[in-house]
Amino acid sequence: MQMRFFTLTDYPVGLPDRTLFTLETQTLPELDEGEVRIRNRWLSVDPYMRGRMSGQRTYVAPFELGKPMEGGAVGEVIASKDAHFKEGDLVSHMGGWRDIAQLPASGVQKLPNIDVPEQAFLGVLGMPGMTAWAGLNLIAECQSSDKVLVSAASGAVGSLVVQLAKAKGCHVVGIAGAEHKLEWLASRGVEAVSYRNKNAEELERAIAQASPEGVDVYFENVGGICLEAALGQLNEHARIAVCGMIGSYNDTAPAPGPSNLSQLVVRKARMQGFIVADHWHRYADFLDEVGPQVAAGQIDYQETVEETLERTPDAFLALFEGANTGKMIVKL
Amino acid sequence: MQMRFFTLTDYPVGLPDRTLFTLETQTLPELDEGEVRIRNRWLSVDPYMRGRMSGQRTYVAPFELGKPMEGGAVGEVIASKDAHFKEGDLVSHMGGWRDIAQLPASGVQKLPNIDVPEQAFLGVLGMPGMTAWAGLNLIAECQSSDKVLVSAASGAVGSLVVQLAKAKGCHVVGIAGAEHKLEWLASRGVEAVSYRNKNAEELERAIAQASPEGVDVYFENVGGICLEAALGQLNEHARIAVCGMIGSYNDTAPAPGPSNLSQLVVRKARMQGFIVADHWHRYADFLDEVGPQVAAGQIDYQETVEETLERTPDAFLALFEGANTGKMIVKL
């Protein structure tokens, strides 16, 4: 059986060029004992993957040049030599960026029995959803009385953060750019603030207007002027959960950080980076809490869907243009 | 009775000019019920006081122009209309920047019964010492296996941080400038790193050499290139206790922050500002632990002593030139 998959031909500097992604074909070997073969139906593309294209180890090893790339995927088992899986099982795994995945069963999970579309396990009930939940609850220790600020608030992670915070009863401000994103935020009861055509000072004023009682929790996805503006509006004992700083992922030279970091002292505030993988042992708690809300339609999760394996790199690159609302996925 | 005291005549921009501090004289009113009168013997000058000269409320109200300035002081009760104090009692209080203080007894503490020179309660066993202990233990949650980095490592706070960390058994690196400060650090078993004539990258290399196993705890007193260099060497789950950023206290324009803040995500690290006042309920725990070490001569606390009330502003301004080793105090 043939597998079609993407490889990276070189580590990019700055925004990756489309030509660095090469679609290759390979004949799969016979299935070994303990392996499963999966026909992927949905592939995930995520900002964190840019970090794996750097050639430097960060919190996850870089992609190996010329080898199949990896990423979250949902598919159907089409052959199994492991007792836990049988043909027809729907599963999630990290063998993405390809059409057919052949993997050790230890790296494959059956989809939980929750009545949602299967691709939700790449988004609202998968890694991005778990990231939102862990950042808000385990890192920022968000309480119902908190004033919450979220950057990239309509993205895969941010769009769940704002809704989970609203469900707690928090006052929530979301930063986004495009008009339809601001409208979506407003439709969820979120105070929407645009970063467009603003410097840090102007953005800070807009945040102050949208959240007159300051910011207790800031969920950071962007960095740059968003962070500087947020620091200026922190309340005492504020908590910043740093999920990512997509604003700088394609920088070719170091960009200066916020000039007002000393606000952390003045406001006795905490800023904490986190990686969802460290909290995966809480996935069942997350599913228990958020799964029923999603199944009941109380969470409005957005998806931006590209189609065909060939378009996977394009879907990935579109993340850096803010082209997605909610989770960006590829349908095979 | 006359009180001589300093007032601030205007809020400075940048490094305060000596002429902004005016020595005034006032006749004290009769002692009220519940008040005590204290002849100050020692005055404290501290970097945080610069924040009170800004005209803006931060975590403490600004100094009022034309009113007696305030600060830590140690003195002897010379008159009391409060049952808890009698003439001859040695006390600490916040009525500094003056020779005679007349205060409500509620703001006055008797010196603890520990066999150390009285001025130690302005330094190693006072606010700076408590700051070091709280930052290291309560904020950074320092453990014996941690690799510890301290900026302004020979200062009033830093010099105690490095010794408390050494006493725990930690590997400790201290950043300082002047040769005699580096020598003092080395004499305490601390790996001394100079920031002089280095950019952030060069300082980071020097830290990497001095601490080949990275940095688990960074005690931040300076900001600027020290922070940027430290961020580059963090281990996973590192904790940064942000005590202050003296490097920027006199900036007239915002200076950019570190370009590598996203290391907080990569290293899943925490950066937390704190104010010692929030932790004062733990002062007895601090005294229990550190008091005996100081009394036994195990802690080498340095003092830089100016003399006479008139020189108080000069002592304060010298802090920003790095002129002090250890605690800067004024002897009256």
Automatic annotation (TrEMBL), chains A, B:
The keyword Oxidoreductase applies. This is NADP-dependent oxidoreductase. It comes from the Bacteria. Keywords: Oxidoreductase. It comes from Halomonas dongshanensis. Residues 14-330 form the Enoyl reductase (ER) domain.
